Amino acid sequence: MKSYITVAKEHRIEYIVEKSRFIATAIPCETEEEAQAGIARINKEFWDATHNCTAYALGPGQEQQRSSDNGEPSGTAGKPMLEVLKKTGITNTLIVVTRYFGGIKLGAGGLIRAYSHSAAEVIHDAPKTLYAPRQIVSLTIDYSYYGAIERFLQEQAYHYESEFAEQVKLLIYVDPDKVDSLETTMTNLTNGQQAWDLLESKMVALPYTE
């Protein structure tokens, strides 16, 4: 299982260059069909635009990549937008940059800069989600240890869930490489008075901050 980052939800920004209006929309998508549906929806929304240029990457390692200049000079729109996705590593994401021509030609270099900037800005501003493999650990402790353990987990930004019964049971989502060190820390914090079990490993969605 490989970690990857995607946009968490649809996001849009606008950018104006020499009276041309660029509207960049970033859309999360997991399949080719979802990407094409997103393109069709934006084309319908901005049916009167001069161009709706697109780029998307799919798969944990950006295995699927597509782009379209949608009538702009070859290589001046879709490819620069795709390069932004490749550079950031963001995947399972579609970018559509809509252009309303303002009457002043930008030239090839100007178009590349405008489409690249629009794509980079919408990706930078969009909320993002990290999908990462996590080992789920079950930790059962007495209430007397809960305060110290909760403080540690919060300080170290662990994702966890708590259940309260006769004892406290925590489900902690751990980076596989940190399981052993976490077990050592939990043993120290509880003086060895804990029940520790390894459960399943799975991909989980986590908030991502740059």
Characterize the structure shown:
Helix 2 runs parallel beside helix 3 (107-125). The protein has helices at residues 32-45, 78-88, 107-125, 146-155, 179-189, and strands spanning 4-7, 11-17, 20-28, 51-58, 64-68, 93-100, 128-141, 159-164, 168-174, 195-208. It starts with a strand and ends with a strand. It is elongated, with a radius of gyration of 23 Å. With 210 residues, the protein is an alpha+beta fold. 31% of the residues lie in helices and 39% in strands. The longest helix has 19 residues, at 107-125. A hairpin with a 2-residue loop joins strand 2 (11-17) and strand 3 (20-28). Strands 1, 7, 8, 9 and 10 form a five-stranded antiparallel sheet that branches. It has a five-stranded antiparallel sheet with strand order 2-3-6-4-5, sandwiched between helices.
Choose one word for the global shape.
elongated
Would you list the SSEs in sequence order as H and E? EEEHEEHEHEHEEHE
Total helical segments? 5
Structural class: alpha+beta
Would you report the number of β strands? 10
Beta percentage is 35-45%
Low-confidence stretches: none
Radius of gyration over C-alpha positions, nearest whole angstrom = 23 Å
